[in-house]
């Protein structure tokens, strides 16, 4: 599980902070609306293999397809 929150929106770029497994040390990812590319700005301490950042990338691309970017939320899987 991870939670995420919109950190910054500047023109074509969005930045989200994310918290794997309810942790307190966030990671930060960026998404460029113009190019559709996602980047890891800061990897969370609990995201050693980038699994959580990649889950958030998928969610952000879903937002793009739906035409609406959420400000915060949670992603759970098993």
Instruction: Give the ordered list of helices and strands.
Output: EEEEHE
> Order of strands across the biggest sheet?
4-3-2-1-5
Number of strands: 5
Shape: globular
Radius of gyration: 11 Å
Whole-Å distance between the termini?
9 Å
Proportion of residues in extended strands:
35-45%
| Helix content bin | 10-25%
Oligomer: single chain
In this structure, how is the largest beta sheet organized?
A: 5 strands, antiparallel
Number of helices: 1
Structural class assignment: alpha+beta
Unreliable stretches (pLDDT < 50, length at least 5) are none
Structural overview:
- The structure is a single chain.
- The protein has one helix at residues 51-66; strands at residues 2-10, 13-20, 27-32, 38-42, 72-75.
- By secondary structure, it is of the alpha+beta class.
- Strand 1 (2-10) and strand 2 form a beta hairpin.
- The mean pLDDT is 95.
Write the layout of secondary structure elements.
Blueprint: E1 2-10, E2 13-20, E3 27-32, E4 38-42, H1 51-66, E5 72-75
Antiparallel strand pairs: 1-2, 1-5, 2-3, 3-4
List its salient traits.
78 residues, single chain, alpha+beta, 21% helix, 5 strands, 41% strand, 1 helix
Describe the structure concisely for a colleague.
The chain has 78 residues and is α+β, with helices and mostly antiparallel strands. The chain is built from one helix and five strands, in the order ββββαβ.
